[in-house]
Structures are given as structure tokens and as C-alpha cells.
Protein: Tripartite tricarboxylate transporter substrate binding protein
Organism: Massilia soli
Amino acid sequence: MKRTFLKFALAAQAVSMLSFAAPVAAAEAYPSKPIRMMLGYPAGSGIDSVARLVAGRMEKTLGQQVYIDNKPGALSNIAAMAVATAEPDGYTILFTPNSAPVANVHLFKKLPFDPVKDFTPISPVATLGFVVLVNPAKTKANSLAELTAMLKKNPGKYSYGTGNATGQVAGALYTHLAGVDALDVPYKGVPPAIIDLIGGRTDFVMADASLAIPQVAGGRVKALAVTSAERIPALPDVPTMTEAGLPDYDLWGWFGIFMPAKAPVEITRLLEKSVKETMADPAVVASLRKIGVTPWLGTSDDLAKAVVTDTVKWGKIIKRAGIQAQ
């Protein structure tokens, strides 16, 4: 009888130990398969270039492939929704500009997700400014002041291209503060907007610096101003919007990584650590600065705070620019 009881006790203890060890082993095994990084803009866009650089470096620390899944449309809402409804197991993550969790709250009357409740912040990645570009072969403006004068002389005649939420807000804020009337032509990404600018189908473009810089270097477009409060090191001779005659104009965006809500803490911490190591890598830093992107070494808490504070900030900017929610 005692021997039988002892057998049952040992068996129960073994089962208990196995059941306790199972989740620990599962957590330690992450990641055991490739990780999908969702992106709300097309391949070849500025954010796509940054995401691929970051994903490639994260693979070294995670020991698994991190591949980009481009789902362009609705100013990144499609990609964000795909992540918000995914399993919070660490195998579907969102690489997004501040549009989805911040600006889109004010640009859309109703979002298909809650920017705070439906996501787990992982880490900020970088910040970047935007650049006002013109085609020197078509537009003779050599400064923002000359572009403004041209637009004022012919209200409603000219158009400008945008390829993301920040670009749209940057363009609307410029036309509002400068007191000019120009048509915003939205594209699914900045590259097609620049193609149409070079082809003479639009008159200027609000482009993120990562795509503007190589085009400016190639001489196919001319940069008139940058939207951030400080000049971009890769474009040292291009003035800020404030320096170019628009006081208090300061607009820049950021990139961050999120997971679905209720993600396991051990997985979020592992991903946060991977991003932190990536953004501290000198090779990554050098590559980003070369295209006008500034690494943001922050924490998941920093990103969570940015979503809350920037939602208020961007609400004021969007209202100031006179943009109506669609």
C-alpha cells in the first residue's frame, strides 16, 4: 500500500514538474520560427528601407529570419489592423511610423483598432524629418519663398504629392501657414510621388528624408527646405522651414515597433533588447544617418508615452493645418 502510494506521489510530482517546465521551455525557445514584420507602406519606400535594415540586424540577435510583409494602404491602417488581430505570440510585429498610432486618430473619423488598447509597445526605432522637393527642370523656384510666391500668384493651379500621413500633414501645414492654395495628390508611397514629380505631373513633393537625399544627390530634384526644427546633417545647406520664412514650423515623424495587445512580457523584453542592440550598432547608426534618419535609443515605456503625448500634439498640428477627418 505504501509502495503504491509512493508511486502515485512520484508520478504526480513528475507531472507537476513537467507542467511547470513546459511554459518556461516554450518561452526560452522563442523564436523558433521566422518573425513577420508588418509594414503599411510599399517596398522601396523610405520606411521600407529603414525596416529592412533594422530587421536584418535583429536577425543576428534573435537567431531567426525577420521578414518584411508589405501591406500598403489607408495610411498604414491595413497593416496595423492585421497586427492588432494577430496572435500575441511574437511572430507578428508591426513596424510603423507615427501615423497609425498617433496621426490617424485625427485623420480618420473612425479607426478599426484602438492605438493604445490593441497594441503592446516594443521599442522606438528612429526619428526623421521631411523635405520639400521640386523638379528644377519644371519649377524654377530656388527657395521656399519663391515657391510660395509662385503658388500665391496662381491659386489652385499647382499640386503636390504626398506618400504617407506625415507628408500629408506637412504639406497641409505648409499651405495653411504660407496662405497658398495647392492640391494634395496622395500616393500609396513616396517613391511614386517622386516619380511623378520628376515626370512633371506634380509641382512639389513632401518627402521623407531617407528618399529625398539620394534623389537630391542625383540632381533630379532640388530640396528647398526641411520640416524639422534643425537642419538634416546629410543636407547641411538646406534650410529649415522656419529659416525659410515660416516661423514655428516644426514637424518630424518617428518609427516604432509594436506587438498585439496582451503579449507575453518575456517575449516583449527579448524583442525590446534586440531592437536596442540594433539601434546601438555603429554600422546601423551610420547607415541611418546617411539617409537622414536619427536612431532613437529608447524603451517600450518611452514608446508608450510617445503614443499618448504625440496624439495630443499631432491633434493640434492637424487642426492648425485645417485638415478634416475622412
Remarks:
- The first strand starts at residue 35 and ends at 39.
